[in-house]
């Protein structure tokens, strides 16, 4: 068996395989190679006796600080030969965290709930990061070995069973991946070579454009291609791409998009790249032939912020600008609220307009809630903890009648009462205390008392964040679930609602009244506390809270089809 590792500055490299230690031979480009037999292995650099896991490890059965294990992707028996993929346009995405989606917190336990998503009308299941991180419980964004699947969830075979089961039900799988930083524990890459360059808000960033960066970029791209090829995933959600600092003529994102499109042609199924970006820059989703990076979609925080302020009345921090009376109208017309306009939160102008004549709305994921917008609140409280069922229903109606690709966060569809809080489980007591203290200080600056912020290292914080599936069929929850099912069904049955071209829509606001016209369909929403005339007429397709085609009581909506 051949073992290889990139260590361009090393003078001597050995590989420990099971009980033996073998000298490695230097090859081209800083790569070292050795032939040995065994399954558990680690590398020793220069004169050190530290046994380091493989940067390209495919399995870490004993955690991120221990030896790697040989894993052969070809040994898994797939049953999805009939799966030919699913395009994102026209889809509905469902974001979930494996560890808290079910009581079991594993891939196999999540499989048992996939039928619920099918009945809901979901087309794409987005899974928060599953790569190896230190500890047993965490969000997954502190991963350090990107090719090895977190063992407590079920390891690589467990994830493959999940993907296989999803495909059998017609569900595409989106995987959240983090290439902008590495976690604070177990990140040994810099011991091997010039992987790191500077720091960002979350940890060490990657060297994407300096000396030795060719292999670092290859490390990222090869990892992405492996998820598509070896794990059969259908899409990747790229975390915080604005933190990928790359000054090359061909940005890493453009290189990645090109190679993914090439693999898509070879596999004969659609492969999708979805960016999370704070830049409000349509260049990300502009095709390469028009000077863009060629990614297929990106998250739309501005949609979330505008609707969140309308539903909750919160106007602090980055929500301040979105208190503008026309905020929702602006995002429904042009995607970005900040499009070369002043951002008071940033104290500068921000963003660039989207050419809605050439860039379709399906390239922007819209949502009422997501893991960040819930979990990064001090107490992890959902919208259902602070707003009425009527206001939640109004928000859902705007989401599913919008020209964007809708996304739902797990449990949102039944107004789950469980919070989703920030949690981790670093074994190192000093690191654990640093995370705990840092979290409390962060929210203290925003007026929260220390006692109000859950201890992220307390196992009870994880338990509180698990979905309570017993709520699904109980009063106060089943009505919201039925509403979500109906809205998704109507979006599928009426092509106007999934029409991605923003110029085809008309939107107007008058105080608390919003009217959105999608072809022959009209959505009228009353966000206020007093009745209003809807201003629409036609066959009622869906009404909430006693609404009629002519009259909207407080916090209600009606969807009609004109005759």
Automatic annotation (TrEMBL):
<keyword id="KW-0326">Glycosidase</keyword>
<dbReference type="InterPro" id="IPR044901">
    <property type="entry name" value="Trehalose_TreZ_E-set_sf"/>
</dbReference>
<dbReference type="InterPro" id="IPR022567">
    <property type="entry name" value="DUF3459"/>
</dbReference>
<dbReference type="GO" id="GO:0005737">
    <property type="term" value="C:cytoplasm"/>
</dbReference>
<keyword id="KW-0378">Hydrolase</keyword>
<feature type="active site" description="Nucleophile">
    <location>
        <position position="239"/>
    </location>
</feature>
<dbReference type="InterPro" id="IPR013783">
    <property type="entry name" value="Ig-like_fold"/>
</dbReference>
<feature type="binding site">
    <location>
        <begin position="237"/>
        <end position="242"/>
    </location>
    <ligand>
        <name>substrate</name>
    </ligand>
</feature>
<comment type="pathway">
    <text>Glycan biosynthesis; trehalose biosynthesis.</text>
</comment>
<feature type="domain" description="Glycosyl hydrolase family 13 catalytic">
    <location>
        <begin position="95"/>
        <end position="491"/>
    </location>
</feature>
<comment type="similarity">
    <text>Belongs to the glycosyl hydrolase 13 family.</text>
</comment>
<dbReference type="Pfam" id="PF00128">
    <property type="entry name" value="Alpha-amylase"/>
</dbReference>
<dbReference type="InterPro" id="IPR012768">
    <property type="entry name" value="Trehalose_TreZ"/>
</dbReference>
<dbReference type="GO" id="GO:0033942">
    <property type="term" value="F:4-alpha-D-(1-&gt;4)-alpha-D-glucanotrehalose trehalohydrolase activity"/>
</dbReference>
<dbReference type="InterPro" id="IPR006047">
    <property type="entry name" value="GH13_cat_dom"/>
</dbReference>
<feature type="site" description="Transition state stabilizer">
    <location>
        <position position="372"/>
    </location>
</feature>
<dbReference type="InterPro" id="IPR014756">
    <property type="entry name" value="Ig_E-set"/>
</dbReference>
<feature type="binding site">
    <location>
        <begin position="301"/>
        <end position="305"/>
    </location>
    <ligand>
        <name>substrate</name>
    </ligand>
</feature>
<dbReference type="Pfam" id="PF11941">
    <property type="entry name" value="DUF3459"/>
</dbReference>
<feature type="binding site">
    <location>
        <begin position="371"/>
        <end position="376"/>
    </location>
    <ligand>
        <name>substrate</name>
    </ligand>
</feature>
<keyword id="KW-0119">Carbohydrate metabolism</keyword>
<feature type="active site" description="Proton donor">
    <location>
        <position position="276"/>
    </location>
</feature>
<keyword id="KW-0963">Cytoplasm</keyword>
<dbReference type="GO" id="GO:0005992">
    <property type="term" value="P:trehalose biosynthetic process"/>
</dbReference>
<dbReference type="InterPro" id="IPR017853">
    <property type="entry name" value="GH"/>
</dbReference>
<protein>
    <recommendedName>
        <fullName>Malto-oligosyltrehalose trehalohydrolase</fullName>
        <ecNumber>3.2.1.141</ecNumber>
    </recommendedName>
</protein>
